[in-house]
Each structure stands twice: as C-alpha cells, then as structure tokens.
Design goal:
Blueprint (H helix, E strand, L loop, with lengths): L19 H4 L1 H11 L19 E5 L2 E9 L15 H4 L4 H10 L6 E5 L9 H7 L7 H12 L7 H6 L1 H5 L4 H7 L31 H25 L2
Antiparallel strand pairs: 1-2, 2-3
C-alpha cells in the first residue's frame, strides 16, 4: 500500500480554523516521506520529525529546519477570505471555486522551505507572502529561485541569498526543480517558468484583475497541482 494518497484533503485532519502547514499530521508525514531522499550529490537528505510541526536535518551538509508552505493559493476560493480579491472571486461560480480549493488541499499544492530566521530577516515563507510583487504566487517565487541560481536580481533576492546553503543542496535550478517534482512549472530545458498568468516583468500586477483572469489562473494552478500529484504518485515506490 502506498504511503501517500494524492487525493487526501489536508484540512481533514487539521483542527478547525488552523493551518494545515502547521497542524496536519498527515501533511507532515507526507513531506517527510517525499523529501527524505538523495540529493543531486547522491547524499541522502535525512529528515527527522522530532521537532514539533517541523522537519529537521543535520549532517556535514549543515542543519536545516523545514516547514510546510502552500503553493496553491486560491485567494478566497476556500474558507479564508482574501479581502482585496473578494469582488472578483465572489463572481466566480461556487462549483469552480469548490473544485479549485479541493485540488489545492492535496499534497501537490505544498512544499517545504527553511523555517529558521537568519539574522532577524524574513523567512522565504514570510517574504513571498508580504512582498507586493509576489503576493504568495509560487510561479513568481520559482522565477525568483531561477534567477537566484543565475545570480540575477529578483524581488526575493535578499531573502534567497540568506538561505544560499539550502539552495546549494540542489546544486542547480534543475536540481531544485527535479527534487521537488516541479517539472510541470518549467519548460523542457528549465530556462523559463510556465507562468499562471501572463508575465512580462515583476512590475506587472501579481494577482488576477478580472473574473476571467482569475478563472484562467485557477485552471493553470489546478492543472499544475494535478500534474504534480501524478509525479508524486509515480515517484512513490
């Protein structure tokens, strides 16, 4: 029997009103199962779950505390209101919103980042949520990570640079993408991101500005999460 059920709703074992990233024991178990594996170097990235709500690694590679983070944000299609998007999201069919949120409750819509603050700065989770050019969109976050590996500036440069030891584990952008099963968010040669909304620069508005844009965004995120779930399902022995 497989350890991971790619249809499992991580809210189903999360206390009401709480965040699955912190409180879902199943999500934490899935993360440990998925990311405790060999790095591009061939060295195993051993994770233990002895630290409450986090996963921990310590070896000659360094010490890392990792926390879960949602990468499938619905901006109000679920139980959490996103005030700046409410006028747009309220016009979307309840059926569309329900399906979008349901898909974003599965393991394919979650990833892990380092959780320990360095020199009092924001963590990656914090920075990508508060930066007005990112607004928690993971496709934009991944573009920042792509630029990090190319030594190019991005809205998250300062934060990503603080966590260079974490990104060094994967050796390259391709190594990072492959490790976390993110191939469906990049083109075949890993040179570009398949953005969920049209992207020209980080000066573009990160959130959908109309109902049609939101529906298009929801379709693209849904397709990515479903594809990533399939990769996870195929990966698991």
């Amino acid at each position: 029997m497989k350890t991971i059920d790619i249809s499992f709703d991580v809210y189903s074992d999360t206390p009401l009103g709480k965040d699955p990233d912190t409180y879902s024991l199943t999500l934490r178990k899935y993360h440990k199962h998925l990311w405790d594996k060999s790095l591009p170097s061939g060295v195993r990235f051993i994770l233990n779950d002895k630290t409450p709500k986090l996963l921990h690694h310590q070896s000659e590679l360094g010490e890392f505390f990792l926390s879960s983070d949602s990468i499938g944000h619905t901006y109000g299609a679920g139980p959490h209101e996103y005030i700046s998007m409410s006028k747009i999201v309220d016009k979307v069919s309840p059926v569309v919103k329900k399906r979008f949120f349901k898909v974003c409750c599965t393991i394919g819509a979650f990833i892990m980042f380092p959780s320990k603050r360095i020199d009092g700065g924001q963590t990656i989770n914090m920075a990508r949520g508060t930066n007005h050019k990112i607004k928690d969109r993971f496709d934009l976050t991944l573009e920042c990570i792509r630029r990090f590996y190319k030594n190019e500036d991005s809205p998250l440069s300062e934060t990503l640079n603080r966590y260079f030891k974490f990104f060094d584990l994967f050796e390259s952008f391709q190594g990072y993408v492959d490790f976390f099963h993110l191939q469906d968010l990049v083109v075949n040669d890993y040179s570009k991101i398949k953005f969920w909304l049209p992207f020209e620069s980080f000066e573009s508005k990160p959130l959908p500005t109309s109902t049609d844009e939101y529906i298009n965004y929801s379709k693209n995120v849904t397709n990515f999460v479903l594809a990533r779930n399939q990769r996870i399902d195929r990966y698991e022995p």
